[in-house]
Amino acid sequence: MRNVYPAFFTKTNDKVLVEVPDLDILTEGNDMNDAIDMARDAIELKCVSLEDDKEEIPNPSNIKDLNINNGTFADEGETVVSFVDVDSTEYRKKIDTRTVRRNVALPSWLNYEAEQAGVNVSRILQEALMNTLKLERRI
Q: What fold is seen in the domain 2-95?
């Protein structure tokens, strides 16, 4: 599911507070970029959870119907409304921890040495990919 939700972004002295009124979400970020990322992640997680629970996902409000003065953080600083785009299908792929099979080509001699040493080639490949991509294990 792809959609665009309006969100209130309130700049304080040291944070950006975020409210997504359509989904009852409150979060924050260190700056505007971080706040948008946090909002996107929270919206996608909420939508995926609602989908999994077979609950209806609320439609985004019309931005004209929103009043920033009614926001949870209205008294905390200057508030602006912006849109946050979400894609729950992509989010599912990102958080999915199932293993998948991949065919990997190795020279026969290297495969032989790995088997003789009892090396788990899949584990080493995972670690090498995470190191190369600068990622941490999710499981």
A: Double Stranded RNA Binding Domain (3.30.160)
